[in-house]
Each structure stands twice: as structure tokens, then as C-alpha cells.
Amino acid sequence: MRLKDKVAIVTGAASGFGAEIARQYVAEGAKVAVADINAAGAQSVADALGANAIAVSCDVTKRADIDALVAATVAQFGRVDIVVNNAGWTHKNQPLLDVDEATFDRVYNINVKSIFHMTHAVVPLMRQQGGGVILNIGSTAGIRPRPGLTWYNSSKGAVNLLSKSMAVELGPDKIRVNAICPVMGATGLLESFMGMADTPENRKKFIATIPLGRLSEPKDIARAAVFLGSDDAEFISGVEFPVDGARTV
Fold this sequence. Notes:
The chain has helices at about 15-25, 40-50, 65-75, 100-130, 150-170, 190-195, 200-205, 220-230, and strands at about 5-10, 30-35, 55, 80-85, 130-135, 175-180, 240-245. By secondary structure, it is an alpha/beta fold. It has one domain: Rossmann fold. The chain has a seven-stranded parallel β-sheet with strand order 3-2-1-4-5-6-7, with helices on both faces. The longest helix is centred in the middle third of the chain and has 29 residues, at about 100-130.
């Protein structure tokens, strides 16, 4: 078990990538706080995982919620070794001038400011413990941006870059930070990313741009998160880790 006795927080864990990360973490021996604004969904995932998981209702855009999440994790499991900042949001694929300010703010609050809040909440604890791991879910959109998702692309570019900067600054504290960068996957946000109906024909068009010939799946992202969260990756920090079937090459 690569994560035996580790304690992890996974945000946006009621479904999609986050739920599968939580499942694989528990399977690898970790104890996990399943955090999501969808409290019922988080509880369902945690219930299925048993005694090594708890559900915490959390709006990642609110510092008070993040503080409560960290406190609940420590109260239940005693520490926090790994944080996976997975919660994310996008605007619909459309011309950049058609995205209104409220939507822009929502994208940045969920994708970027949430990491600011989590960093303030968890880094002091990790410093006291002598180290830790922070994994931020970035995106290939922040590496190889395409028209229609400009503001989302830029938010994920911020995630990718801040992960590198955090790695440099927090390295002396034995805190590793990496960005996992998925290509588009079959999640609840797929139609918004595509900007068109999720039909076999439209999927085929996008899949044709991925050399390995398929969309990303939750298991792909979770496997990367297991590796980067484990001691097998003890000397890996500051990396943009594409999980993209060679899309960004």
C-alpha cells in the first residue's frame, strides 16, 4: 500500500476525478476527508469507503469552510499529509467577450482562490509536521490553450504556475507541490468544455486530437495522484504532470 497511514484531503470529491482519487487513496491505505459543496454526494462517497473516510461539506471559495475542513480532518485522523485541490469549474466554450464578470469571478474563485485559501490553512500545519504534499489539479488547457475557453485556460495556467512557485518556496519545509494536468475527460463539465452537445460525432472530433485515442478517465488522474502523493515521488516537486495521451506534445 503506497499511501499506508497517510491522511489526505480531496476537494471536489463527490464525483468525477475527485471521487476516484478518494477511492484509490483509501485502497492504497490512506484516510481521506471527502470534501465537496455537494454534501449528499460527499457523504455517499465516504459511506462507500467506510471507516477510513469522512465527508465534509465545503465551499472551497470560503476561507471559513476551508479552515473547518482542515480542522475536521485533524480532529478525525490527527494530521494532514496530502491535500488534493481538485475542485474546479469552467465557463461554457464561447468567445471571450461573451463571458460575463460573474462567471469569470466564479471560475477564478473556484480554480485559483481556493488554492490560496487551502495554502493558508494547511501549510502552517504541514510545517509543524515536518512536511507534506500538495497536488493541484491544473489542466492541459493551461499548457496548450485553445480558443473559446480563454478565461478558464488562464485560470488553469495560474494553477500550473503557482504550483511551481509553491514548490520552490515550500521545498525547504519538505512540502512537495505538483500540478496534475488532465486532458478533457468524461465528467459533468464535458459539454461546457466542448461548447457543443456531447454526441459520438463531436467526441470523435476531439479524440482525434489525442494521440492515444481517448478522453481522460477518472482512474488516470487518480493513479497520477496516488503516485505523486506517495513516497515513490519523494524527489518530484514543481512538475506540470500532463495526463493527456500526448495531447500537449
